[in-house]
Amino acid sequence: MNAGGIDAQRISSMLAQLRAAAQKPEGFGAANAVSPVQKTVQSSPTSQVSFSDALKASLDQVNNMQVQAENVGKDFAMGNDNVSLSDVMISGQKANIAFQATVQVRNKLVTAYQDMMNMQI
């Protein structure tokens, strides 16, 4: 069955891929991918990870996701046959979710800072 130019089998396949990706505990990357924050923690199990290094690694990862989503979108717009619309939408949503999570973390940090500054000594 063809619904608006998209084959129902492709839709079922895409849904199966999304469900499989949702089951992965790592989140954004491939099954064996390790985030920069996890690399920092794993590389030195006895030493402590500085907050600034972990924050910078997380921000770099979000930035890389946004750049990748933009590049995939440009490739699709230029007519690259190797990039499908679903690839563009998925990479854009991943970048959006990562950015929204970053904004929420920032909001929590600002709130914690304000609470600490309002404490009486």
From TrEMBL:
Localization of this protein: Bacterial flagellum basal body
Record Pfam families: FliE (PF02049)
Keywords associated with the record: Bacterial flagellum, Cell projection, Cilium, Flagellum
Transmembrane segments annotated in the record for this chain: none
Primary subcellular site in the record, as a coarse category: other
UniProt similarity note: Belongs to the FliE family.
Protein name stated in the entry: Flagellar hook-basal body complex protein FliE
Species the sequence originates in: Methylophilus aquaticus
Encoding gene, per UniProt annotation: fliE
